[in-house]
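Tokens for chain A. Residues wanted.
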């Protein structure tokens, strides 16, 4: 059955092929501003993995709702901060080859950055949870069991990332905790029947875990009371040399995918799965992002068809030569949207006053393919009542010396 990949058991643990950094615990000079908004965090250096995540105010949403920021820490000193607004990953501190921790995520140090008119105008979805449907649905139209639906149009006549007010703009209920793997943050959201035009009450749970193995793991589950498309992901922008390098063009990327989904001028798949061999889309061996990007009009913003579609498998491996940082993305999804921050234009200034220009970060959005509800040959994204949508993606950090 079409959604069987999602119904498989979650992988109990992930075995990274990367060497994990043995980082020292002198983390007092961390390059982050997240700690300035999270006073409790200042005491967190050396926090044992069994302690609970800390929380602090992240400011107020436009409607006055108080937004919280949670900080997850592991024994090696890695830190992830997650906001209840959009379930957004706002910072992630990981070690470089010298054991120095610094932030590798684009974003802001207060919720005001995520709700500002400039942010909404450029709509980069920094670090946010994306739903109900990640990436595009052509003209926002689809039919399930003979019923036609129209969902919010917000991108060149198409629906992108859930429509006008996607899950990235919702305030999620949050519960900090711990598991055998490390500190956790469980976020829940009820997307009501008809929200943005989607059918069915969709109950969504997302669990972020910062593991002892230096991975940020994201488990997504959802249930519905009417058949509906679901395609959840996270829209983090990474720059493994953030603060040192204005763009990510020197990062070396490997994507184990022999094919990608060809798109039209509005970035809707034509249905063709094209071989990457001999094209600038071939990342089956490591290539710097900047090596062939000029040959791709606009830059990379495509869905790669991963060679392995089920079970936990690699979606991408990234290496940044100056810091030695590595990141491996593993998932059970069949695709990954590799997006190189093509629409960033310098109009947004983030944490530490860093201006985000073109290619300041890249995204690896694990997902089912764009516009699957209108592409019968693509793996199905339809969730039915009685089924449970499950998917897990992990970002594992290490260093290469
Ligand atoms: C995805 C899309 C891009 C862009 C970004 C957000 O990666 O594929 O075209 O919309 O989200 O800016």
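Reply:
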């Amino acid at each position: 059955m079409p959604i069987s990949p999602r119904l498989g058991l979650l992988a109990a643990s992930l075995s990274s092929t990367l060497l994990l950094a043995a980082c020292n615990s002198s983390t007092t000079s961390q390059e982050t501003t997240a700690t300035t908004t999270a006073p409790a965090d200042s005491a967190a250096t050396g926090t044992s993995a069994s302690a609970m995540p800390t929380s602090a105010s992240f400011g107020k949403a436009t409607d006055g709702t108080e937004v919280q920021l949670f900080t997850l820490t592991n024994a090696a000193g890695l830190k992830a901060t997650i906001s209840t607004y959009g379930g957004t990953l706002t910072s992630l501190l990981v070690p470089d080859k010298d054991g120095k921790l610094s932030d590798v995520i684009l974003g802001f140090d207060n919720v005001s950055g995520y709700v500002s008119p400039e942010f909404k105008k450029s709509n980069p979805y920094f670090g946010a949870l994306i739903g109900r449907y990640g990436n595009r649905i052509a003209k926002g139209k689809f039919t399930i069991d003979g019923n036609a639906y129209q969902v919010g149009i917000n991108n060149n006549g198409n629906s992108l990332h859930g429509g006008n007010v996607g899950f990235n703009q919702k305030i999620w209920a949050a519960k900090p905790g711990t598991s055998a793997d490390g500190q956790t943050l469980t976020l829940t959201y009820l997307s009501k029947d008809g929200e943005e035009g989607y059918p069915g009450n969709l109950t969504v749970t997302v669990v972020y875990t910062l593991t002892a193995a230096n991975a940020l793991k994201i488990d997504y589950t959802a249930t519905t009371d009417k058949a509906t498309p679901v395609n959840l992901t996270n829209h983090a922008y990474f720059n493994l040399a953030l603060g040192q390098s204005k763009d990510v063009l020197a990062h070396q990327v490997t994507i184990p995918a022999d094919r990608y989904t060809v798109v039209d001028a509005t970035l809707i798949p034509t249905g063709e799965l094209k071989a990457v061999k001999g094209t600038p889309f071939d990342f089956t061996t490591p290539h710097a992002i900047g090596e062939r990007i000029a040959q791709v009009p606009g830059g990379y913003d495509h869905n790669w068809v991963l060679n392995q579609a089920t079970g936990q498998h690699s979606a991408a491996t990234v290496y940044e030569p100056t810091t030695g940082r590595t990141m491996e993305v593993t998932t059970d999804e069949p695709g990954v949207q590799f997006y190189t921050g093509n629409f960033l234009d310098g109009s947004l200034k983030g944490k530490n006053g860093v201006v985000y220009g073109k290619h300041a970060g890249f995204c690896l959005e694990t997902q089912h393919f764009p516009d699957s509800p209108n592409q019968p040959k693509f793996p199905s994204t339809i969730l039915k009542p009685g089924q449970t949508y499950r998917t897990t993606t992990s970002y594992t950090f290490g260093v290469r010396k």
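The radius of gyration is 20 Å. Residues 117-122 form the longest helix (6 residues).
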